[in-house]
Amino acid sequence: MGVRRNILTSSQARTQYVEGARTLKAEFLGPTTSDLAIGGPARQVSTWDLFVVWHHIAMNRFTPPSQSDRNAAHRGPVFLPWHRFMMLLLELQFQRVLGDRDFGLPYWDWAADGERAPGQQPGSALWGPDAMGGQGSPVTTGPFAFDAARPDSWRVLIDVDVQNRLRSVDRGLRRSFATSASALPRRSDVQRATGQTAYDESPWSTTSGGFRNLLEGWQPVAGAPHLHNRVHVWIGGDMLPSSSPNDPAFYLNHCNVDRIWAAKQASAASPPYVPTAGASAALLGHRIDDQMYALLSSSLTPRQMLDVSRWYTYDSLAV
Ligand SMILES: [Cu+2]
């Protein structure tokens, strides 16, 4: 069973994550870009990039069309279970290529770095050459650095155009720290989310109160995005559009979001998942027994994501 560890305190998790990511990026077993209706030159899609495609499609799927601003993976109650589902499938892929059934995706406890002065946050060990590498356009340090002369260097092969359509490209990864948000979230921001008494609330969108919407980060505080959204924006570059799983840092952020949810679930006052199965059909895709959007796999429901104890655990739920 997977054990999910803090990437900054477990050098083994760090090494395995880098190795697994690079292996999945170089594994071409799946469909081609033209099979998936992706524009530009046709080529096979790597296992890693299938998750980029899945995330983009989910983020642009509105079912039913009358949903306010909710899509099939964000801006509504399903945000947490859908990303848990996505990471569970990715974790199984890592376990397969690493030959390690106990591998767990690592997490980045970004609120720990958020307690440092804003000017020191880009200096976190996370962005060192033995972890995620640094920033740049393209990134030129660490295991995901771009090197035009080396075909095995990390390349973004699928991104989105200005009309938000997937396209085939070939370039380095981009990051721009603290450009669109000046500081990472802090412990007190996390605690404001975990202190909410409801999992989610009407109108089940970006304007809701409740745990899910605060953790997703749509409730503005001083006009800035929060928690999960803030981390995407603080990293910047490829973390901004719907193709954000291109950056291996994507899963470190989401794994920490999932850990915060797991901590809330383990607490004495953990509220039940809502909306219920009998809620309005306008909430299709977000109710507890609705099928979540899947690509090339069978679907699961939010209810099936509530207890993950047979799949993985976290080394620490301290948030
Ligand atoms: Cu997402």
Give an overview in words.
The protein is mostly helical and 319 residues long. It has a single domain (2-127, 153-170, 182-232, 243-314), classed as Orthogonal Bundle (di-copper center containing domain from catechol oxidase). It has 8 helices and 4 strands; from the N terminus they run E-H-H-H-H-E-E-H-H-H-H-E. A two-stranded parallel ribbon has the order 1-4. Strands 2-3 form a two-stranded antiparallel sheet. Strand 2 and strand 3 form a beta hairpin. Helix 1 (11-25) crosses helix 3 (79-98). The relative contact order is 0.18. The model has no long low-confidence stretch (mean pLDDT 96).
Map the helices and strands:
Blueprint: E1 2-4, H1 11-25, H2 47-59, H3 79-98, H4 110-114, E2 156-160, E3 166-171, H5 187-194, H6 211-216, H7 227-235, H8 249-266, E4 312-314
Parallel strand pairs: 1-4
Antiparallel strand pairs: 2-3
Bound molecules: copper (II) ion (CU).
Strand order of the largest sheet: 1-4
Q: What can be said about the biggest beta sheet? A: 2 strands, parallel
Strand percentage: 5-15%
**Cα shape:** globular
The total beta strand count reads 4
Output the number of helix runs.
8
CATH homology group? Di-copper center containing domain from catechol oxidase
- The name of the CATH architecture is Orthogonal Bundle
Mean pLDDT: 96
Calculate Rg over CA atoms.
19 Å
In short:
The protein is mostly helical.
Structure characteristics:
319 residues; mainly alpha; di-copper center containing domain from catechol oxidase; two-stranded parallel ribbon; two-stranded antiparallel ribbon; 8 helices; 4 strands; 29% helix; globular; binds copper (II) ion
